[in-house]
Structure formats: structure tokens, C-alpha cells
Amino acid sequence: MSDLTVFELALHNKKDIYQFYLEKSNQLQNLLCKEIFKKIIDDESFHLQRIQEGYEQLRKGEIFSNGSREGLRRSSRECFDSIFSEIVQDKNQSSSPLLTEIEIIDQAMALETSIHRFFATSEKEIGDQKIKDFLSFLAGEEYRHFNLLFNTREYLNDCQETFPQYPQD
Asked: Of 8, 125, 142, 151, whose CB is crowded by the most CB atoms within 10 A?
């Protein structure tokens, strides 16, 4: 697969994932889920911008520059803990998540797994070291998102067990 093809596919996939997070974030009611999705939306926007820049460089026949990654990144655990500590202080937060939110997180985890696999596989097929490094960075970011989602899902499952939802008549 050519360098340009990898960037075209990455751009297409990232646009779809970004759109998924935007659409699903509006369906969430749990504040923790909303904040986690907001964080991932910010990350995905940054990734999309960098992929677009790389695509444009390659399309013009320029050398991929693998520009700045400033502002990145706390670990997924640090990010979750930070968001969680802010949420816990919100006394109006519902203690029982909707099953739908867990399903949305499951969908997001599946997307993150798929795009991680794409970046990790593509990295092995590319010769240019700067592109390899960029794809490795993106694969790491997707792995971090997966862990952030996994931690959120575990928390929601614990809440579900502690505060089960009962059917409303």
C-alpha cells in the first residue's frame, strides 16, 4: 500500500470516527460519559488535522514532516481520574447509567480497536520512517482511547451493579 493510500484511508476512517463521537455524544446523559467523549472528540479533531496535513504534503509530492504533537498527552488513567474526580463533585449526577450508554461505549471501543489495528498494520507496510513514527503515534493514541473507554465502561458497570435500574411502569 502506498504512503498516499494509507493517508487517504486514515483520513476517511478518522472522519467517520470523529462523526461517530459527535453524534453519540449528543445521546449521552451521564456526565462522565459526556466528558470522556468530549476529550476523545478533541483528540480526534487533532488527529484528523494532522492526517489531513500529511495527506496534503504527500499529495503535493512533498516529504512528510511529522509535525508537532505538543499538548499531548496524559495517560488514559490520568485522564479518567481527572475527569472522574470533577464529576464526583457534581451532586446532581445520576448514579445509574443507562444501558444505552454502555452500548455506545462498546461501539466506540470496537471503532478504536479497528482503527488501532489499521495504524499498527499500516506502520509495518510503510518504508518512510517519519510516516512509520506518525502511524505508531496514532496507534498509541487509539490504544489510549480504548483504555479510557474501557475504564469508563468498568465504572459504569460497577454503578449498574450497585444501583440497578428497574423497569418503569
From this structure: 142
